[in-house]
Design a protein that fits this description.
The chain is α+β, with helices and mostly antiparallel strands and 242 residues long. 21% of the residues lie in helices and 12% in strands. The protein has a domain at 83-191: Alpha-Beta Plaits (2-Layer Sandwich), CATH 3.30.70.3270. It starts with 15 loop residues before the first strand and ends in a 9-residue tail after the last helix. The protein binds iron/sulfur cluster (SF4) (2 copies). One iron/sulfur cluster binds at residues 95-101, 112, 130, 149-150, 152, 154-155. It catalyses: a quinone + NADH + 5 H(+)(in) = a quinol + NAD(+) + 4 H(+)(out).
Length: 242
């Protein structure tokens, strides 16, 4: 067993020297030791005053506190919030189920299944529509790449930022939750396209309202009995595609 040198343990650590060559005390309670520099009497007075100066400046600034949720925050007009699947002016859906949004998504947050429209059940003016559409907000980073990729402007983003929830399932928004509501004069899909118009005309903006008789036609296709008022106002329903 080798012996420890006698001098170990009795040696004193060398004194650290400051930039000016003056010695600085080592050790102490702080991470960097309790280095102390001489403080002039001017500094002793000015430092607290400078600290209170910051407080006084803040007292006269506009308050940043948000009274949320009592007063909902107003976002910037182009804020990237919850998505929306848009409709044409007659209520048909703009989504054609092409999946370009899903391919563009860097977070793999979108799931789309397309399907064919038929004359009996038409959800969009063209050949295909989005039968299943889901966005997983546990993954989405609200980057907006999906809305840039959408060729029909079916997918846009709203200003709604209240997406937090307590379960993963509730963060997966389905087509029913994402599809835009019906505006005045729209009729919910499925229904026929505007008589005399084709898919191109929808994208040219030539269809600006629902075709007369569409409401009645939808009611009949569902086996409902149209109301007398509808019968009167939509007496010329024969012109609408079945
Ligand atoms: S906003 Fe970005 S992350 Fe969210 S679904 Fe669209 S592409 Fe994906
Ligand atoms: S939202 Fe747009 S990009 Fe996505 S499937 Fe529908 S049409 Fe295609």
């Amino acid at each position: 067993m080798s012996e420890l040198p006698e001098s170990r343990g009795s040696e004193k650590p060398p004194k650290a020297t400051g930039p000016t060559g003056s010695s600085v005390a080592s050790g102490g309670s702080g991470a960097g030791g309790s280095a102390q520099s001489p403080q002039s009497s001017d500094d002793k007075f000015q430092n607290p005053v400078a600290g209170f100066g910051v407080t006084f400046k803040a007292m006269f600034k506009k308050r940043l506190t948000e009274q949320y949720p009592e007063t909902p925050k107003v976002t910037a007009p182009r804020f990237h919030g919850r998505h929306q699947l848009n409709r044409h002016p007659d209520g048909l859906e703009k989504c054609i189920g092409c999946e370009l949004c899903a391919w563009a998504c860097p977070a793999d947050a979108i799931y789309v299944e397309g399907a064919d429209n038929t004359d009996e059940e038409r959800y969009s003016p063209g050949e295909r529509y989005g039968r299943v559409y889901q966005i997983n907000y546990a993954r989405c980073i609200l980057c907006g790449l999906c809305i840039e990729a959408c060729p029909t402007r079916a997918l846009t983003m709203t200003n709604d930022f209240e997406l937090a929830n307590t379960t993963r399932e509730s963060l997966i928004y389905t087509k029913d939750e994402l599809l835009a509501g019906l505006e005045e004069g729209m009729v919910d899909s499925p229904h026929a396209i505007f008589p005399g118009m084709d898919e191109q005309d929808y994208y040219r903006g030539l269809v600006t309202e629902v075709a007369p008789g569409t409401e009645r036609q939808v009611a009949v296709s569902k086996g409902e009995k149209p109301s007398d008022r509808d019968s009167e106002s939509n007496g010329s329903a024969q012109g609408v595609d079945a």
